[in-house]
């Protein structure tokens, strides 16, 4: 790394979220190119060459960048609707609108979703996109292009649905794909866009939507496709009591057993929500190392329930955090999920012992990297890992009287992001994006939201 351009960050508190939860009250981080070269207590080493920039980070906490493990970007342009519905009623209310999305709408919605996350400390994002109306354009390409332009590391979970209203599902018939069509389009997306390298900026996962919107054949064949291509698998699982009832009525077993019967448990799989899990379900996830994307705000918004995150962690289940779609989490930020994961889980059986501040931070960083299969590359601050990190400003009115910086970050108000780096490149400065025009994105998302509402109303 001697010839690489260096950035030196000094005089900051550091929470590395490494295997020992190493922290420094005042320390330094040295970035060389797109990697973390060194970090530790006190000032940076003397005599460093090719130092392009020195940052005095007094009053800041440096952490790994936040990692989002579940989202639906397109929902940015349908926020604030069906606000008093449970999941199934919410889906019934919104599918007729979602079924009218097209490429310009999806591009604007992806920009809005990514911008909100990036300016709030997310350095690795993902999108589970599963609505592909006929003739809607290159939706996957639009999403991936938006992430590339924003400068965030990104996983596209290429979703699919083949169970429409005529088959007992929820989406309109014209908004789903055929089994063969979904598999072919998913394979093409993987082959065009997936990068398996250490410092990959774009990866693709195979992601049929949910047990109640896809056929058993699509689940089973999708799992086989993912493993043939060497990519990860993602879907929704055990989100509501209605889903559990649906699985028992249609398949004669609960969601976890059904997933296992179709090849959907394994260390290459992660599922969103997993709210209604019994001891046997959690044991199966732990045994198979199946990951979970915990989405506390969305689960509360849709009255789905409280996921048993403390029990999952105790059993060894990999758990990360997810924003979920912004039609069920209008804030669109992952930082708020650190706080909500801690507070909501304390309403469960474990009460005040459910989660602490450092466990919440781990969920949002290293836990997310585990779930996305990228823990060797990111999720903690360690020499040799990718230079994905955030400087949180904690010396303002909102946080200055909280002595412990990790407690301030998790328990306190949303902390300002002074700087966010992805792959060694700064993408946020003083809370504003450096890679996109936030005001232009706001105008575009408003216009596309109004256009979608007009088209849906006319239909």
Quick one: overall form?
globular
- Helical content band: 25-40%
Poorly predicted ranges: none
Estimated share of beta-strand residues: 15-25%
Determine Rg (CA atoms, Å): 21 Å
Please state the structural category: alpha/beta
State the major sheet.
9 strands, mixed
Our measurement of the CA-to-CA distance between the termini, rounded to an integer number of angstroms, reads 58 Å
Count of helical regions: 14
By DSSP, the count of extended strands is 17
Question: How would you portray this structure in words?
Answer:
Its EC number is 3.5.4.32. One of its GO terms (molecular function) is 8-oxoguanine deaminase activity. Helix 2 packs parallel to helix 3 and helix 2 packs across helix 14. It contains 14 helices and 17 strands. The strands form 3 sheets. Strands 1, 2, 3, 4, 5, 14, 15, 16 and 17 form a 9-stranded mixed beta sheet that branches. It has a 4-stranded parallel beta sheet with strand order 6-7-8-9. The chain has 459 residues and is an alpha/beta fold.
Ordered list of secondary-structure elements with their pairings:
Elements: E1 6-15, E2 23-32, E3 35-41, E4 51-56, E5 60-64, E6 66-67, H1 87-98, H2 103-118, E7 122-129, H3 139-150, E8 153-160, H4 179-193, E9 202-208, H5 216-229, E10 233-237, H6 241-251, H7 255-261, E11 269-273, H8 279-288, E12 291-294, H9 296-301, H10 309-315, E13 319-321, H11 335-345, H12 357-371, E14 389-393, H13 405-411, E15 417-422, E16 425-429, E17 432-433, H14 438-458
Helix pairs in contact: 2-3, 2-14, 4-5, 11-12, 12-13
């Amino acid at each position: 790394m001697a010839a690489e351009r260096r950035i030196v960050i000094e005089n900051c508190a550091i929470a590395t979220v490494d295997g020992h939860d190493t922290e420094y009250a005042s320390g330094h981080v040295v970035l060389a190119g797109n990697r973390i070269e060194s970090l530790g207590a006190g000032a940076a080493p003397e005599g460093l060459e090719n130092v392009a920039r020195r940052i005095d980070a007094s009053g800041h906490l440096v952490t790994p960048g936040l990692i989002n493990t579940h989202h639906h970007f397109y929902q940015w342009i349908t926020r604030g609707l069906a606000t008093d519905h449970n999941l199934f009623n919410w889906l019934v209310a919104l599918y007729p609108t979602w079924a009218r999305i097209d490429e310009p709408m999806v591009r604007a919605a992806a920009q809005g979703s990514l911008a909100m996350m990036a300016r709030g400390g997310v350095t690795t994002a993902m999108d589970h996109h599963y609505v592909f109306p006929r003739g809607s354009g290159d939706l996957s390409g639009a999403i991936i292009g938006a992430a590339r332009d924003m400068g965030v590391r990104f996983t596209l979970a290429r979703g699919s649905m083949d169970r429409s209203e005529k088959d007992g599902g929820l989406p309109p018939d014209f908004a789903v794909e055929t089994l063969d069509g979904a598999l072919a389009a998913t394979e093409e997306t993987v082959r065009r866009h997936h990068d398996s390298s250490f410092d990959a900026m774009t990866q693709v996962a195979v992601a049929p939507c949910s047990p109640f919107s896809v056929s058993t054949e699509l689940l089973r064949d999708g799992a086989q496709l993912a493993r043939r291509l060497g990519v990860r698998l993602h879907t929704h699982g055990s989100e509501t009591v209605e889903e559990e009832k649906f699985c028992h009525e249609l398949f004669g077993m609960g969601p976890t057993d059904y997933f296992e019967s179709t090849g959907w448990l394994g260390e290459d799989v992660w599922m969103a929500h997993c709210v209604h899990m019994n001891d046997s379900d959690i044991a199966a996830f732990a045994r198979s190392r199946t990951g979970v994307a915990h989405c506390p705000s969305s689960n509360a918004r849709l009255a789905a329930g409280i996921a048993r995150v403390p029990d999952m962690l105790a059993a060894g289940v990999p758990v990360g955090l997810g924003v979920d779609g912004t039609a069920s989490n209008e804030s669109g930020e992952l930082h708020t999920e650190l706080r909500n994961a801690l507070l909501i889980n304390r309403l469960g059986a474990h009460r005040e012992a459910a989660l602490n501040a450092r466990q919440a931070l781990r969920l949002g960083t290293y836990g997310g990297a585990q779930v996305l299969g990228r823990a060797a590359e990111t999720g903690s601050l360690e020499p040799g890992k990718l230079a994905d990190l955030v400087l949180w400003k904690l010396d303002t009115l909102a946080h200055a009287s909280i002595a412990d910086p990790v407690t301030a970050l998790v328990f306190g108000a949303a902390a300002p992001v002074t700087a966010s780096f992805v792959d060694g490149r700064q993408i946020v400065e003083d809370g504003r994006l450096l890679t996109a025009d936030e005001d232009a994105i706001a105008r575009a998302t408003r216009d596309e939201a109004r256009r979608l509402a007009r088209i849906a109303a006319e239909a």
